[in-house]
Amino acid sequence: MANLTPSPAAAVLDQGRAALQNLLGEEWEVTVQPEELPGGDHGWEAVLQIKSNNEGNFAQLLVDVREKITPKDVFGFLTSTALLVRRVNHYTRLMVFSPWISPKTQEALREQGIDYLDLTGNVSLRVSRPAVVIHTRGADRAPAGHRTASAKPLLTGARAGRLIRLLADVAPPYRTTELAQHAGLSVPYVSRLLDALEDQLLVGREGKVITSVDWQELLRTRASHLDLMRLTNPQGMLAPNGLQAVLDRLIKRDGVVAGQDVLVTGSYAARPIAPVAVGGQLMLYVSPDPAAGHTIARELGLMPVPEGGDVLLLHAPDSSVLHRPRRYDRYRQVGPSQLVLDCLSGPGRMPAEGEKVLEFMAAEEHSWRIADLSRLSGTEEPGLL
């Protein structure tokens, strides 16, 4: 059953019907039919009839109107409802109407053969008689105001980043309290975020224990909410003696400049483990303090420039960005999971580099993923693994 009160559900149904009518055009008629099926509580709110004015053929869509829908919903109640519908009539389809449906949920609906429509323009409909095939794309992100006051936390912000990196970097099983301790977060917040991740099928639980993590999709989902250039307030720099001279200084100081951790990210960090292309800007994570950034730049032989710099100093939005660094090609760089987040949310060819890093991580999971939380002590601090 839908979670909406009748009035909002009716509005979504009416707007959805009108949108479907506009997509099909004047040669088709889309109408809401009187409910003729017994039982009332059967998993849909209305019956839509799609009729061809030229041929007279029609199909029925059983419409489930939802305020929110997640992949977990799809593989739960909706899948069993869709199977029931197909047993009753092969030509009758189950369709979901909602204000907005996420890309991951759309994919889950298509996998289960369930049609959908949201009010931003995401539509998938496949009817065999009369022949109708529609697939359009709308918004990839929830419109402003879509979340309700009781909605679960989004995968944005520093706190979410801490937990997501921990889930990616450390293999389960583990409990909510353990994750909260190691991430330096409150148990209620971690619990709510885990609920949201479970709804998206990004984690699996048995009772109170997290038993599985889809770390690749988890990182992709987190990155889809980020913009590296906006998040890190980059300072453009010029390396008069060349980028190799900067890297040589970092190697000599083992990534610590003016008492601060300086870690390589972006293309230069991706290249040693997943080479895609040459060139690109050298990106370095530094302290959020602008004064510290100027001191680090001076010690690395860099000159500030208003534009066109070959080095970018990125200001880490949270200390967790620097957690669990690695050493590749002699210099220290961010851990693989942070590198993926940076590349996938970065400009130019960086998302392609991020996907290559993911391929490396999947093939070499034993080389970077920590076996269990007992290998970590307390709240995480930067340290080379």
How do you describe this structure in short?
The chain is of the alpha+beta class.
Core attributes:
5-stranded mixed β-sheet; 7-stranded mixed β-sheet; about 375 residues
Structure description:
This protein has 385 residues and is α+β, with helices and mostly antiparallel strands. It contains 14 helices and 19 strands. It has a seven-stranded mixed β-sheet with strand order 1-2-3-4-5-6-7, with helices on both faces. A hairpin with a 5-residue loop joins strand 2 and strand 3. Helix 2 packs parallel to helix 3. 39% of the residues are buried. About 1% of the residues have low confidence.
Per DSSP E runs of 2 or more residues, the count of β-strands stands at 19
* Main sheet overview: 7 strands, mixed
Outline the low-pLDDT stretches: 36-40
What structural class results from the helix and strand content? alpha+beta
Provide mean pLDDT, rounded: 85
- For the largest sheet, list the strands in their spatial order: 1-2-3-4-5-6-7
Strand content: 15-25%
**Count of helix runs:** 14
* Global Rg: 25 Å
Shape: elongated
Distance between the termini: 49 Å
Give the helix level as a range of percent. 25-40%
Structural topology:
Layout: H1 6-24, E1 28-33, E2 46-52, E3 58-65, H2 71-88, E4 93-98, H3 103-111, E5 115-118, E6 123-127, E7 132-136, H4 157-169, E8 174-175, H5 176-183, H6 187-199, E9 203-206, E10 209-213, H7 215-224, H8 228-231, E11 235-238, H9 243-252, E12 256-257, E13 260-261, E14 263-265, H10 267-270, E15 282-286, H11 290-299, E16 303-304, E17 311-315, E18 326-328, E19 331-333, H12 336-344, H13 350-363, H14 365-368
Parallel strand pairs: 3-4, 4-5, 15-17
Antiparallel strand pairs: 1-2, 2-3, 5-6, 6-7, 8-10, 9-10, 11-16, 11-17, 12-13, 14-15, 18-19
Helix pairs in contact: 2-3, 4-5, 4-7, 5-6, 7-12, 12-13
